[in-house]
Design goal:
- The complex is a heterodimer of chains A (460) and B (190).
- Chain A has 460 residues and is an alpha/beta fold.
- Chain A contains 22 helices and eight strands.
- Chain A has three domains: 246 residues, NADH-ubiquinone oxidoreductase 51kDa subunit (Rossmann fold, 3-Layer(aba) Sandwich); 91 residues, Ubiquitin-like (UB roll) (Roll), CATH 3.10.20.600; 98 residues, de novo design (two linked rop proteins) (Up-down Bundle), CATH 1.20.1440.
- Chain A has a four-stranded parallel sheet, sandwiched between helices. A four-stranded mixed sheet of chain A has the order 6-5-8-7, with helices on one face.
- In chain A, α3 runs parallel beside α9, α18 packs antiparallel against α19 and α19 runs antiparallel to α20.
- The radius of gyration of chain A is 23 Å and the shape is globular.
- Chain B is α+β, with helices and mostly antiparallel strands and 190 residues long.
- Chain B folds into two domains: 82 residues, no CATH class; 80 residues, 3-Layer(aba) Sandwich (Glutaredoxin).
- Helix content of chain B is 49%, strand content 9%.
- Chain B has nine helices and four strands.
- In chain B, α4 packs antiparallel against α5 and α5 packs across α6.
- The relative contact order of chain B is 0.11.
- The N terminus of chain B is likely disordered.
- Classes of the chains: A alpha/beta (460), B alpha+beta (190).
- The structure holds flavin mononucleotide, iron/sulfur cluster and FE2/S2 (inorganic) cluster.
Chain lengths: 460, 190
Amino acid sequence: MIDPNWLTSALAQAKTKPLTHLVNLEQPLNIEDYICAGGYCGARKAVTELTPKEVLALVSDSGLKGRGGAGFPTGMKWSCVPSLQDKSLAMNATGNSYLICNGDEMEPGTFKDRYLLEGVPHQLIESMIIASYTLSANKAFIFLRGEYHVAAKRLQQAIDQAYENNWLGERIQGTGYRLDLYIHTSAGRYICGEETALINALEGKRANPRAKPPFPQVSGLFGKPTVVNNVETLSNLPHILKHGGEWFKNLSPNSDPGTKIYAACGQVKNPGLWELPMGVTIRELLYEHAGGMKSGMQLKGLLPGGASTDFLVPEHLDTPMDFDSIGKAGSRLGTGGLIVLGDKHCPVAMVLNLLQFFAQESCGWCTPCRDGTAWAVEILTRIEHGQGTSKDLTQLAELCDFMWLGKTHCALAPGAVEPLKSAMRYFKDDFEQHIKQGCCTYHQNNLLSAKYISKVANNG
Amino acid sequence: MHNNNKNLSSSQVIASAMLSDEKINFRQYLTSAEMKAIEHEVLIMENREAAGIEALKVVQQHRGWISDDSLVAIAQCLNISSAQLEGVATFYNLIYRQKVGRYVIHVCNSISCHLNDYENILLTISSHLGISYGQTTEDGLFTLLSNACLGNCDKSPAMMINDKHYHSLTPDSVIAILNGLSLNVGQYYD
Ligand SMILES: Cc1cc2nc3c(=O)[nH]c(=O)nc-3n(C[C@H](O)[C@H](O)[C@H](O)COP(=O)(O)O)c2cc1C
Ligand code: SF4
Ligand code: FES
């Protein structure tokens, strides 16, 4: 049974923290409690009162942008689905399209979707009913990364409850609409998060990305119109349906509407995540919510939205965390999770770790990415170990061009270039010092302090 | 996989020939529980091929890993070439194509854990168990593997052992966890 005190305080935040106010990581709400807390109102409104086109109009007007990394307007994405263009198909579900929720979440430094998946699974199911209805899809999938075992279990329980309560299956809530919802658990591969690779993975094929066009909205899963949306993107839908597009716009003080689940990890005092109005400044996020840097450290730089975004540095602290502002500062909002680097840790070592990830996760389909990421790892390893030359820096810069947008089949390689290229710009001195001194200066410091610590320990 | 080789490129034919084992008949090889679980997954999808990852996971759940024989049997069951299924199986980190221990340790080696010194955790595990990445302890209890970001970055360093996640690791806590698991197994056999 739901704790009335918990419910009261949760509901007090319903309009300021719509995405997370019902999150309960210990024990997510079951369907009765979720409904008791106002759940399934948005889905009810959609399927019983509105036509798919009306839902589409509502979502388009709200200005919701995708939270999966690229920030593409959700309404615009949906409107490319043929059934929403063709008036004769719009009224009844044809079963000729699919909705896929992208819950692959393998971007290093990103853990926001997990919070929603584990903490309030019914919200995602409700969201998927709304989206599927709009797209005239009778089958929908949650593509979940294989490591999220708790999320898989809780989602399956919630799906079972939704079937028992006529929120999934035949004739949902007495309407003519039918929806089946399935979970696909993946088996550990970052590229599966790229939407066309994800579709190949679901079809049981090797998960290489597909060439676009055709875009998935026209020809996706099993050749049918398919929309892929991120967990957080979808989770906004019940609240937009319930409170309207104007309310959604007013959640944020600037031109990017809604709230965002921001996060901070790395070398900060209180890592975690927080749902805040879109557009808080990096400074507020870092110093008020994440408690500032770990003791004894100063901020050296940060990635604003996951591993595949460009570094920003202290001069950018007052930049609002919205798509446009972070873009103007030279990076991307990405997934909105800060990865924070302090001044005691080697930036070359950090970039090496990032590139190792991209090299390992490259699907190997195209040469610039397959060879380029591996080559960058080789060069960075050399520099980090004090064996780099100035020619290596030129070569790294060339690799950044070689792997940039338009030269590869998907966005993984350009994503790898972003932290590398920006690090070489902002931390140029560090790269040059490694080469000049023939060693990693940070590593020297670490070794010294390690020796110092063991000496103190021995004496003590 | 016998007669559809003509659709494959030469390298695929070689790979497929290496794996083809005429002795295997999937109806005898797969247990009824495995077949039932695979057919359940097949029903959801539009064609048999699409249940590939699910089928691999079903068999791995029962047998711990995917041997060559298992691969051939699953491919037959799904009506695809074993070379094609091998291309899928080897693509993924969580499908084991080699025998693994009872506990598979996946240490996160991504960025937040790097910034919080996962290397020290890895070193602790490695020296405590006497194995490095890709190896299994002699008693068959532990296998050590790396894993990309586990989505526990706010509580790094993190690791996953079988289905269970562990976070905020210290060298002491890691050793306690490993000892706990070894002990459990002892009780299990008693
Ligand atoms: C290499 C790569 C990995 C990706 N991983 C994810 C992911 O794990 N989750 C996600 O939602 N989007 C991921 N994306 C973005 C998706 O391709 C897609 O843009 C997104 O799911 C669209 O959802 P949205 O419109 O709701 O943002 C990835 C993209 C690339 C290039
Ligand atoms: S850019 Fe990399 S991940 Fe993307 S298709 Fe090419 S090789 Fe694969
Ligand atoms: S980086 Fe290790 S859990 Fe995310």
